[in-house]
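[agent] plan:
  1. take the single chain provided in the ticket
  2. run structure prediction with default settings
  3. attach structure tokens to the ticket
  4. add a short note for the reviewer (M.T.)
[agent] executing step 1
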Amino acid sequence: QVQLVESGGGLVQPGGSLRLSCAGSGSIFRINEMGWYRQAPGKERELVALIRSGGRTNYADSVKGRFTISRDDAKNTVYLQMDSLKPEDTAVYYCNADITYYSGITILNDAYWGQGTQVTVSS
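[agent] step 2 finished; step 3 output follows
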């Protein structure tokens, strides 16, 4: 069974930094595309950043220049370094990954979500 576990959320003052981690575990053959999404109260979930297996990245305009996504394939982990945080970054942050995994003698592919971690930016 495959799962994603996030860590690193919390309360930070405006202008501060946080680093989120999301580690995959289970019968993983390969993690393909990985991304971070967020959902603020009363709003839809939105894409924050994406990193492909070759390392190419995409960012939402609202976080460009402030957030950095990276991955460590040896650890099946994706990171989100968040700097210069603003109150409008307050949300629950979710990681998502497209994972190829072993299922018995078969190899399958599916998308997985982490449980979410709260990030609150407030003075």
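[agent] step 4 note for reviewer: The two ends are 41 Å apart (CA to CA).
[agent] ticket updated
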